[in-house]
Write a structure and sequence with these properties.
By secondary structure, this protein is an alpha+beta fold. It has one helix and two strands.
Length: about 80
């Protein structure tokens, strides 16, 4: 079990990667007349806004414009085409 002592501050750089917070981002688009809803969860990804949101944005861009994002980089252990 992993925990942080009461009163201690969470410092991501001092926590093993497998024990870091998960990143979650949920959104829908377009705002006026929603056509798509997306929920992205990145295990041990840290912060939703900086980790999961760009993934959701890429999904929205592809769905709404048909253009695939070319600059997204996948890590070695991520799925490949």
């Amino acid at each position: 079990m992993v925990g942080i002592k009461q009163g201690a501050r969470y410092d991501e750089s001092r926590v093993a990667r497998q024990h870091r917070d998960h990143a979650l981002f949920i959104a829908y688009a377009p705002a006026e007349d929603p056509k798509i809803a997306v929920a992205v969860m990145v295990e041990n990804g840290g912060h939703g806004g900086s980790t999961a949101a760009p993934i959701a944005r890429a999904v929205f861009d592809y769905y709404l414009t048909g253009k695939r994002p070319g600059d997204m980089k996948l890590e070695a252990n991520d799925a490949t085409e």
